[in-house]
Amino acid sequence: MKVFKACFKITRRHIISLLIYFSAFTLLAVLLSFSMKPADNTDFEKTRPTYSLISRDGETPAVLGLRAFLDTVGDRVELEDDKKALQDATFFHASDYILILPQGFSESLLTDSPLEAETVTTPDSAGGYYMDIQVNQYLRLFQAFHLAAPESNLTELAAKTSDAVSAEAQVETVSFGKQQPVPEQAAMYFQVLPYILLVLIISCVSTIMMPFQRPDLRMRNMCSPLPALKINLQLILFGAAVSFLAWLVLILTGFGLYGSSLAGIDFRSLLLLFGNSLALTAVCLSIAMLTGSFIKTSSSQNAVANIFSLACSFLGGVFVPLEMLGEGVLRVARLVPTYWYSMALKKICALTSYSPETLEPIWKDMLVQVGFAAAFFCISLVIYKVKNTSEKSFSRVQTELNA
Amino acid sequence: MFWNIYSKRLISTLRDKSTLVWTWVFPLVMATLFYFAFTSLDSVDQFHTIPAAVVAEGGEQEAQAFRQVLESVSEQGEDQLFSLQTTASREEAEQLLDQGKIDGFFMTDNQEPTLFVKKNGLNQTIMKAFLDQYLQDQEAVITIIHESPEQAGKLQTLFSRESFTKEISLAENPPTNKINYFYALIAMVCLYGSFQGLTSVSCLQANLSPLGARRCLSPVSRFVMVSADLLAGVTAHMLSLLVLLAYLILVLNVNFGGKTALILLTSLAGCVTGVSFGALVSVCTKMKEAAKTAVLVSVSLACCFLAGLMVSGINYTVAKNAPVLAWINPAARITDAFYCLYYYDTYDQYFLNILVLLLMAAVMTGLTAIFLRRQQYESI
Q1: End-to-end CA distance of chain A
Q2: Same domain assignment for residues B124 and B184
Q3: Is A84 on the interface with B (CB under 8 A)?
Q4: Where is average pLDDT lowest: A245-259, A352-366, A385-399?
């Protein structure tokens, strides 16, 4: 196990970079899973779009009544009456719907043709559409009450309208005897895991593999009595140990964050989640071994780590759900291992029973990942072999002290 | 001598294959990927006709009236709310719901219409809002007839006006979910200019590379050497940014608001900030080059994450909740500058962003200069 021991020595020499990668990417995993959309509930709960009400008409009973009603259907976001603040909130979806009531709006409600309120929303947004329905409904009833009893003042009309809009319909949730086994937040954490695993494992494993790529070292190793296959297997073994450590750190972090909600789910689902992420870890290791065969400098190492991880993540539905990708992109995505990870994860999260029929598609997705890993390992072994027999790969011998 | 060093450094950068992949090819690959991955991103939040069903049970007048209202909002046209199916029984509707063919179904049971759904969602909420409105209108009619019976014949007129709002647009260019990803990508490429800074300093410091040791002995003014090296780094990196911008604007048709000179100014400011950041990290620590690279990659990625590279809109959240963090994040400033050009019709915030970027670059270059100044080595 000489090579394995040498890997330990290299690890010790690069411990600072490895620690930086581990801590930075674990932190990124936490931040990413937090920044994704929050969970839904199993009982029916209204989706509450965000809205802002800018009243240039002061705090009249009509405005107060409208605001109180909108508070029951949406989440209010306070915004300044400033063009830039409104622009920012619309662009970044901080507020799905901005309602601007012009000066004299309330008084105009007591006439036959009230002033129009201005609205700002992202074009054709469903949240904006919903809030617009609600605003129009309130104002329509307000005007109906005014036309029916023109002598009523704003306070009386607001009270009547508020009474009328308090009527709510019954909603029943049909459960079909199914329940979602994996909490949404924990599922989010597992969804962002491929990016972190990929970038972390490629960065760490290639840091350790790089010195073995130096032509002078390779020439020396080839002269040694140790067969090339054994050297490569020991390298893979060490890479597997590092990858497993990365996986373990990330899983433990996940437990630290979402332990309470994960503890409640069926242990079989938990095992499937672990199995799926381990299958992906094997893929990450194989990619790291493959890329390690042509990485020579630390900057190209980072380029490769980022190209592979970001490309696989965007195509594999890690950052943007697969449903949002176009049909053409999805066809390409099938060639990416993270796609199969995301598919398996989706199926695990939707599992309602553990019969062989329901588990079969999940096994298939995991097998595809293992297949990817095997293919990448084989390709990397072939590349190592070709490189060792080709004179060209030894032509540039580095002389720098710190290469 | 300045031009000599400048041109040599430029040529050596352009001949470095790994840098070429890193700063020239990688951004183009990412941009292409973003372009294809985000094709339908904007349509996700848009309103689409909701698939729904109504159970045709109950022949009472009440149930029939409700079904008529439902059919009227399901008529094909611009204002179509539901694509409605009528089922003979509740079981049939439940089957459709379980298969995901509809988002919910209505049923009039004991005269009160009820909504049945499988899960939460905006479509289901809009269905509930429709039902709520139906009941609220009923409630209002009862109140009006109770208080003013003489209005009973004029009810249609009382409820005739449908719209009280008018949608306005605050900017010339429409808001979009996609564009921020591209801006954050450019910010990332700008920050990757730090590798140029790192290489420049490594090749200048006697304790960092054999080349640096040799150059320290050369009879050239330190100032000329440092400035020529860093400037060549900026030039090389700016060239890669120009290629990326040309690709984004001419091939992928990404909208930057059409202000070419200011787009170039932003890229240049970002590029200078990136290079000076790399130079500072390289000069102020005694770590190995791999460790310094790790620092640069981690910091750059963290900055880009906070600028919205992975999750769009996070830059807005950070700016609202931790404004200081947003202002000291160069990636967020670069993204925000591009956003200002795309979305604002004024330039004050844009120039503030550029000023902050240049200030950061000046501080980092100043610190680098202090570290580089009059260094002597007893042993290397």
Answers
A1: 24
A2: no
A3: yes
A4: A385-399
Q: Residue B206: is it exposed, middle or buried by C-beta count within 10 angstroms (0-12/13-18/19+)?
A: middle
Q: How many domains does chain B have?
A: 2
Rounded Cα–Cα distance for residues A341 and A309 (Å): 14
| Residues in contact with B324: Cβ distance below 8 Å, sequence separation at least 6, in sequence order | none
Q: Which residues contact residue A373 at a Cβ distance below 8 angstroms, ignoring those fewer than 6 apart?
A: A279, A282, A283, A285, A286, A337
Note whether B191 and B253 are same-domain residues: yes
Q: What are phi and psi of A371, to 5 degrees?
A: -60, -45
Give the chain B residue whose CA is nearest to the CA of A330.
B37
Q: With b meaning 16 or more CB within 10 Å and e meaning fewer, what string describes B339-354? A: bbbbbbeeeeebeebb
pLDDT tens column, A54-84? 999 888 888 999 999 999 989 999 998 998 8
Tell me, what's the pLDDT at A402? 47
In CATH, what number is assigned to the domain containing residue B77? Answer: 3.40.190
Alpha carbon distance B321, B294 (integer Å)? 28
In a shared domain, residues A108 and A255:
no
CB atoms within 10 A of CB A301: 26
**B290-305 pLDDT tens trace:** 788 888 888 998 999 9
Structure confidence at residue B109 as a pLDDT band (50, 70, 90): confident
- Given B96, B127, B158, which residue is the final one in a domain? B158
Query: Can you give the pTM of this predicted structure?
Result: 0.79
Q: What is the pLDDT of residue A120?
A: 92
Interchain proximity A17–B45, CB inside 8 Å:
no
- Distance, in Å, from the CA atom of A164 to the CA atom of A144, rounded to the nearest integer, reads 11
Asked whether A168 and A46 are in contact (CB, 8 A), the reply is no
To test the contact with chain B by mutation, choose from A14, A320, A335 the residue with the greatest count of B C-beta atoms within 10 A, namely: A320
Q: Say yes or no to pLDDT of A396 above 60.
A: no
The Cα–Cα gap between A110 and A125 comes to 31
Structure tokens at A256: 């630290």
**Which ranges in B105-207 belong to alpha helices (H)?**
122-147, 155-158, 179-191, 194-202
| Contact assignment for A144 to B39 by CB distance below 8 Å | no
Give Cβ neighbours of residue B64 (< 8 Å, ≥ 6 apart). Answer: none
Domain housing B130: 50-158
Are the beta carbons of A136 and B162 separated by less than 8 Å? yes
Contacts of B213 in chain A (CB under 8 A): none
Distance from CA of A279 to the nearest CA of B (A): 24
Do residue B113 and residue B231 come from a single domain?
A: no
Report the chain A residue with the minimal C-alpha distance to residue B315: A92
Q: A219 to chain B nearest CA, in Å?
A: 23
Query: Count of domains in chain A?
Result: 2
* Residue B155 confidence (pLDDT): 78
Q: For residue A343, give both structure tokens.
A: 């598919």
Task: Identify whether the C-beta of residue A7 lies closer than 8 Å to the C-beta of residue A235.
Answer: yes
Instruction: Render pLDDT for B216-235 as a digit per residue (tens, 0 to 9).
Output: 888 888 888 889 999 999 99
Range of the domain at A147: 50-165
- Is pLDDT above 70 for A295? yes
Based on the fold, state whether residues A12 and A55 are members of the same structural domain.
no
Q: A200 with A287: CB under 8 angstroms?
A: no
Does A156 share its domain with A271?
no
| Contact status of A298 with chain B (Cβ, < 8 Å) | yes
Quick one: A158 and A202 in the same domain?
A: no
A336 found inside a domain? yes
Query: Which positions 124-163 of A are in contact with B (Cβ < 8 Å)?
Result: 124-127, 129-130, 132-137, 139-141, 143-145, 147-149, 160, 163
